[in-house]
Amino acid sequence: xxxxIIIGTLILFLLLLLFxxxxxxxxxxxxxxxxxxxxxxxxxxxxxxxYRWVAEGFALTGQGLKVKEKKEGTTGTDKKxxxxxxxxxxxxxxxxxxxxxENVVNLYGVMRYFLSKVVCEKLVWISDLGTGDAAETGxxxxxxxxxxxxxxxxxxxYFQWRRPPQLDIRPYFIEARxxxxxxxxxxxxxxxxxxxxxxxxxxxxxxxxxxxxxxTLFKA
Length: 220
Known about the structure:
The chain has 220 residues and is an alpha+beta fold.
């Protein structure tokens, strides 16, 4: 009996500990010359649970998007393959997203709640830009600065910032160049993700209407 209580207490303690742990997501996108690369890493439980996905190249064709990818899970086993995302699959995914939006009451509010709990630990975005003409490069660099600053400002208003973002655009006046290097790290608590999922489930409406959900006692 005593051992059962001890084991039960330990299990409860571990569950509570997991509830307060954090998930860290690192995203890297680099464009060098004509090559594009994308890196996604997810770490949980201090790296004991991890996932890594690397896209080493993209090719947009008339049949869809071709991706050369590599995956690595907690076991450390790499899986390399070439994937083609067809236009039909893209259209189907778009329809599913639209259905999901229609079947969740106040989806924007739930997403806003979760994103407000996300902490951006790092954002570095450096771009090299040039057209080969000094005057054109100067104008385009100014426009690019405005777009980049506004984009980060709007998107960043949803998160918490651990440190200010580092943005830079380096103009090249004597050669044509378009390269970029983006790295960001996000962190969120597991409990906030669980609460967000619970809110989504409570607001789901398979009939697509909002009426019967308006008076629920579990409004977020």
